[in-house]
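Customer escalation, tier 2.

The customer says the design service returned an amino acid string that "doesn't look like it belongs to this structure." They asked us to rerun it and document both sides in this ticket. The original structure tokens are below, unchanged.
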């Protein structure tokens, strides 16, 4: 192997070292938030967990999920905690008490040294909902939803700059599951509207839920023909583990991921050529 430190292919976006939190199992409740825990701060968040996250130097954390986002009513998660409704959480078949919501998570993430990547609900909701939550988070004031944020005790905008247009929308397990054309059109129009509200944000279009999906890579090809001019990234989902205890096979996962990346790049190039576009990754 020959290494030339002066030969640079590209800058590395630190967000590839990001993570996510979802209202799933113990990830939020008892995980990052546990008022009864000995290390809990005045807001109920565990300082021991927060310090570990700081040590990892996580640059960005996606919220609120995950499958959870596809039935997320963000309005239920803001305002006085005592007035927030308990609701049926359909993705993981649980009860969501909304003790931790949008504002609490945003404050916690910033205290942990991380930016927030917010996901919008394109499963059971759509364009208007995405616009409303963006206005709530990023607009300075003197509008309905920005003033609502201010009334909740957050005068300054959260200024969240990275937004996901739904989650795993090609998965039949997803609430509000869409076909390629359905998602492509919805994501395109949502992206267009969101960037009118805040042109500085960056948007992530949903790619296939994994490289083993029967829709891959057609999903990328079809949806990007709609979203190409309006989004900045396309997501790639793949989980790896060593469940079989075969370390050699597990260590070869990087080759699998490399092929996944190359296929998505090729698909992006195809859409770029078809649209005679100028945008490059």
């Amino acid at each position: 192997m020959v290494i030339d430190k002066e030969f640079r292919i590209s800058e590395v976006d630190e967000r590839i070292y990001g993570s996510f939190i979802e209202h799933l199992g113990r990830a939020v409740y008892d995980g990052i938030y546990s008022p009864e825990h000995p290390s809990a701060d005045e807001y109920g968040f565990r300082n021991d967990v927060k310090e570990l996250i700081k040590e990892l130097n996580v640059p960005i954390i996606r919220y609120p999920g995950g499958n959870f986002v596809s039935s997320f009513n963000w309005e239920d998660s803001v305002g006085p905690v005592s007035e927030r409704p308990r609701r049926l959480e359909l993705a993981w078949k649980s009860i969501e008490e909304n003790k931790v919501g949008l504002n609490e998570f945003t404050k916690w993430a910033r205290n942990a040294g991380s930016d927030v990547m917010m996901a919008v609900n394109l499963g059971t909701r759509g364009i208007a909902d995405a616009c409303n939550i963006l206005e709530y988070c990023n607009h300075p004031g003197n509008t309905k939803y920005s003033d609502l944020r201010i009334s909740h005790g957050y005068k300054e905008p959260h200024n969240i700059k990275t937004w996901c247009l739904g989650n795993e929308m090609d998965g039949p397990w997803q609430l509000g599951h869409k076909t390629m054309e359905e998602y492509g059109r919805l994501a395109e129009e949502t992206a267009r509207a969101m960037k009118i509200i805040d042109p500085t944000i960056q948007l992530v279009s949903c790619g296939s839920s994994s490289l083993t999906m029967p829709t891959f890579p057609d999903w990328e090809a079809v949806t990007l023909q709609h979203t190409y001019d309006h989004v900045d990234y396309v997501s790639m989902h793949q989980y790896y583990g060593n469940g079989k205890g075969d370390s050699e096979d597990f260590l070869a996962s990087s080759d699998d991921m490399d092929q996944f990346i190359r296929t998505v790049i090729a698909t992006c190039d195809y859409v770029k050529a078809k649209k005679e576009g100028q945008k490059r990754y």
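Tier 2 assessment: The sequence is consistent with the input. Residues 253-275 form the longest helix (23 residues). The chain has a mean pLDDT of 95. Sent an explanation to the customer and offered a walkthrough call.
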